[in-house]
Amino acid sequence: MEARIARIEADVAHLCTDVADIKVDVRTLRDKMDAMAERFDAKLDTMTQRFDTKLDALKESVAAAKVWALVLYIALTAGLFGTMARGFGWI
Description:
The protein is mainly alpha-helical and 91 residues long. The protein is built from one helix and no strands.
């Protein structure tokens, strides 16, 4: 019985050292993950700023296209009315 208890104690001691090694590895991984998360956050902020800049430029270009389309529509309508007036003999 004593031999088996001694063997169990030896195995438990081995498990304790393994658990200590695992704890060290987990701490190292946690530190690496924290560093990686900080880098990711920085890159995400940079990409968000770029996206916002491009989105603002796109909004301005759409607004300019709307104005251009409105002017083109008015010119097309005026041309159509002018053609109709000429065809019907109004002018």
